Amino acid sequence: MTMCKAVIAGALAALACAGTVSAQRAGGTATLYELPNYQGRSVTITGPAADLGDWRFNDRAQSARFSGPWRVCEHDEFEGRCQEVRGDVPDLTQYGMMAQISSMEPAGYARPPRPDRPGGGGDPWGPPGPGGRDGRGVEGTRTVFFARPTVRGLDLAAGKHGADTFCRRQGLGSAVWYDSSERARQAIGPDGQITGRSTVIRDLLCAKY
């Protein structure tokens, strides 16, 4: 009986270890706080976030807890000065990023090149297709309405860049308005990256020209 218990305990330990390794490979999570010492409003990020304004947290974080290594940047779209951080950081001043983080992603995340940048090419969303579950959308005099735009069957991560890109893929003008109050377990970003739980676009209104 004692040997049986030892075998079971060893198996459970192995499973726990495997789960930890899987979580590390997935990039972990990052929780940002608007005040030092993990105080105030917080938001948890589970994947690449090109614009923290979508979480209403642009340039707000003053402390953070990181599971695994993360790359944080002072401008959106991962531009400007960036730092690799990890662990619990009660005051982001130590990295020179106090209230200056605008975008972030798990360290080592391989983002596809943006087609509008030198060296980029192709369409990160794949070939253009119907405008989500609503097909071509509902046409008005000057706009076209998409209640729930999707790309490759995935919800579209909230953000002006993604909204504009979606509209133009439909042969339309730029986005006029959209709602970003809903969240989804998984979404696709404007660069084709798959994100974890994030705010997504609903009720998208595209200009016809």
Quick summary:
The chain has 209 residues and is α+β, with helices and mostly antiparallel strands. Helix content is 16%, strand content 36%.
List descriptors.
209 residues, 4-stranded antiparallel beta sheet, 13 strands, single chain
Q: Span from first to last CA?
A: 76 Å
Number of strands: 13
Helix content: 10-25%
Class based on secondary structure composition and strand pairing: alpha+beta
Order of helices and strands: HEEEEEEEEEHEEEE
- Please tally the helical runs, counting DSSP H or I stretches of 4 or more residues: 2
Tell me what you see in this structure:
- This protein is α+β, with helices and mostly antiparallel strands.
- 16% of the residues lie in helices and 36% in strands.
- Mean pLDDT is 78; it is low at 3-26 and 115-121.
List the helices and strands and how they pair.
Elements: H1 2-25, E1 30-35, E2 39-45, E3 63-75, E4 79-89, E5 103-106, E6 138-139, E7 143-146, E8 150-151, E9 154-156, H2 160-169, E10 175-184, E11 187-188, E12 194-195, E13 198-207
Parallel strand pairs: 9-11
Antiparallel strand pairs: 1-2, 1-3, 3-4, 3-5, 6-7, 7-13, 8-9, 10-13, 11-12
